[in-house]
């Protein structure tokens, strides 16, 4: 099922806020997901099973180098099929 997730990653006790976010988004993009980075979150679009697995993998990879907090909202109503 195609879904869209809004994901926010907050790194704690780091000098660079963008490095962990860039790494997180890069992992998701490497898995073939569409990632649109916004000011406070990223929109991730793709198949639900790929999103869930990829977000878990990215979270686990980031925790090897950073202390992070992540929040995620998922919708099967977004994005809407614009042809309907």
What does this entry show, briefly?
This protein has 84 residues and is α+β, with helices and mostly antiparallel strands. 33% of the residues lie in helices and 36% in strands.
Give the structural class: alpha+beta
Number of strands: 4
Order of helices and strands: EHEEHE
The helix fraction, in percent, is 25-40%
In the CATH scheme, the class would be Alpha Beta
CA radius of gyration is: 13 Å
Principal-axis shape equals globular
Identify the strand order in the major beta sheet. Answer: 2-3-1-4
CATH architectural grouping: 2-Layer Sandwich
Structural domains: how many:
1
Q: How many DSSP helices?
A: 2
In terms of per-residue confidence, which ranges show pLDDT below 50 for 5 or more consecutive residues? none
Largest β sheet strand count, sense and barrel closure: 4 strands, antiparallel
Instruction: Report the β-strand fraction as a percent range.
Output: 35-45%
CATH topology: Alpha-Beta Plaits
Distance between the termini: 17 Å
- Overall mean pLDDT stands at 91
């Amino acid at each position: 099922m195609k879904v869209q997730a809004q994901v926010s990653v907050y790194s704690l006790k780091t000098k660079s806020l963008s490095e962990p976010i860039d790494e997180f988004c890069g992992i998701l993009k490497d898995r073939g997901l569409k990632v649109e980075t916004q000011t406070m979150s990223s929109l991730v679009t793709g198949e639900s099973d790929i999103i869930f697995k990829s977000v878990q993998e990215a979270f686990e990879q980031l925790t090897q180098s950073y202390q992070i907090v992540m929040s995620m909202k998922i919708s099967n109503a977004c994005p809407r099929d614009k042809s309907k």
